[in-house]
Write a structure and sequence with these properties.
By secondary structure, this protein is α+β, with helices and mostly antiparallel strands. Helix content is 42%, strand content 18%. The two termini are 30 Å apart. The protein binds beta-D-fucopyranose.
Length: 295
């Protein structure tokens, strides 16, 4: 993560090519962070944010600008426009945020009922504010630890945030993922180690290839190819952590015939090579000291 560390996710130019990044953006009028967050093409992952003090404004030039205050949340999907900053009438805006690549099972929780330009808006009930704020803080803290399984821990906390938001969103009726898409997802999981074509998967889902690709993206928020790659990389992480298989065998196990290509994809997604990732994990495991009496 060496090169990523030098860049600041609060400043423009940060690549956001990790799976999860979290932070707090304290904007004060005239301060160094007092610029407009303007990403017309969005980011590769989702961003969820929570206003903790002051006030922000989203889509100021649209027909429906939205002012956010303490307890208001925004959920910005992949590639949706980021167009927000401090509200002109307020001297500060502090918001916590988490950038993430969603797990496949989260789709149902990522569609909030109130959206403007694809961005979801939701108010946290006052009595639940502390709980949500603490979850955000723990994700922020743990994501910077980069210790053994810290990302899994963060994803677990983020899942709790999303489930709670789903509960707060009374206006939204329950929807479930299309059974045919689920069937294809299970098939992908069982067959990660081999070539998977859209044709074969659409056959499993009993649809035409174009209908399948379209519905898949609609329901899971990413393309079929992207989803398969995400599943492979997440399985690769598990194997690198929990097994002693050499990197080239992990690649073969996950259907990559070319270990160099696998390492490139892995590095692009997680910012480090598989080897460095494994070494980092082992170091952090070794540095975790067992409590007295616990082996
Ligand atoms: C930071 C912003 C924050 C969020 C993350 C992804 O730079 O301050 O609002 O957009 O990026």
């Amino acid at each position: 993560m060496g090169s990523l560390r030098k860049l600041d996710p609060l400043k423009p130019g940060y690549p956001f090519n990790a799976h999860l990044v979290a932070g707090l953006t304290p904007i004060y009028k005239g301060g160094e962070l007092d610029f407009w967050i303007d990403r017309p093409k969005g980011l590769k992952g989702y961003v969820i944010n929570l206003t903790v003090s002051g006030s922000g404004l989203a889509f100021p030039n649209s027909a429906s600008p939205v002012q956010v205050k303490k307890g208001d949340m925004m959920l910005i999907p992949t590639q949706a426009t980021h167009d927000y900053g401090r509200h002109f009438d307020c001297d500060s805006w502090h918001h916590r945020w988490i950038y993430f690549r969603p797990r496949a099972t989260w789709t149902e929780w990522l569609n909030w009922s109130r959206t403007i330009n694809n961005v979801g808006f939701l108010k946290i009930p006052d009595e639940s504010y502390e709980t949500i704020d603490e979850l955000f803080q723990t994700v922020d803290h743990s994501s910077k630890n980069e210790t053994f399984l810290s990302e899994e821990f963060c994803l677990n906390l983020l899942e709790q945030i999303l489930i709670r938001c789903r509960e707060f969103d009374h206006a939204r009726p329950c929807t479930t993922i299309d059974q045919r898409i689920l069937r294809a997802c299970h098939f992908i999981h069982e067959n990660l180690a081999r070539e998977l074509s859209i044709r074969e998967l659409s056959h499993i889902a009993c649809m035409s290839s174009s209908r399948f690709s379209h519905l898949f993206k609609d329901q899971l928020g990413v393309s079929v190819r992207q989803w398969i790659e995400d599943q492979r990389i997440s399985m690769a992480r598990q194997l690198l952590i929990t097994s002693s298989l050499p990197v080239n065998q992990v690649a073969v196990y996950l259907g990559y015939q070319d270990a160099l290509y696998f390492s490139r994809v892995f590095k692009k997604k997680l910012g480090v090579s598989p080897r460095t990732f494994r070494e980092g994990m082992h170091k952090s495991v070794i540095s975790i000291k067992p409590e007295r009496g616990v082996m």
